[in-house]
Amino acid sequence: DGSGGVESTGGIAAEKRATATAGEETNPKIKRQKIMNSVYQINKGVDRPVVFRGLTAQYIWWLGGGLLCCLLLFALLYLVGVSMLVCVLVVVVLAVAWIWQVYRLSKRYGQHGVMKKMAAAAIPKWVKV
Questions:
Q1: Residues near 18 by Cβ (< 8 Å), separated by ≥ 6?
Q2: In Å, how far are 47, 56, 63, 92 from 60, measured between CA atoms?
Q3: Alpha-carbon distance 109 to 117, whole Å?
Q4: Paired strand residues for 104
Q5: Do the beta carbons of residue 25 and residue 19 sit within 8 Å?
Q6: What is the C-alpha radius of gyration for the chain, rounded to an integer number of angstroms?
Q7: Residue 38 CB neighbours (<10 A)
């Protein structure tokens, strides 16, 4: 009976077609794939450095640290009793100078240049034996 063999293979193929035509909701694998695609995104460029307004890598931390120091200096000067105008002028001048210096270093040395320069400066010129 050749039709029985055709029906058995046709049955498997018909089952696959039925699940495909019935919709992806009945197939848990397809449902899971849809959820995975909608929830998880592919993060392209993960290895790229963080950039904030032209500053890369450690310069962002340097800028934040310098501005935090300026804020603390303002608070200290104000608590000591220095007039408000002098406090503001000193802190604004120092903050602008710090921002300018950090941007200058970022453009001059690039992402890792300052660390390389500091590491090279730490190597002794000669070793006495």
A1: none
A2: 17, 6, 5, 19
A3: 9
A4: none
A5: no
A6: 33
A7: 8
pLDDT reading at 13 higher than 60: no
Of 102, 93, 68, nearest to 76 by C-alpha is 68
Distance CA 92, CA 74 (A): 9
**pTM, two decimal places:** 0.53
Per-residue pLDDT of 108-123, as tens digits, reads 877 777 777 788 888 8
Mean pLDDT of the residues in the chain: 75
**128 band by pLDDT with thresholds 50, 70 and 90:** confident
SS3 call for 15: helix
* Per-residue model confidence (pLDDT) at position 7: 46
Instruction: Provide the residue type at 70 as one letter.
Output: C
Residue 113 and residue 82: Cα distance in Å, rounded? Answer: 39
Rounded distance, CA 19 to CA 25, Å? 9
**pLDDT 10s digits, 20-49:** 555 545 555 555 555 555 666 666 767 777
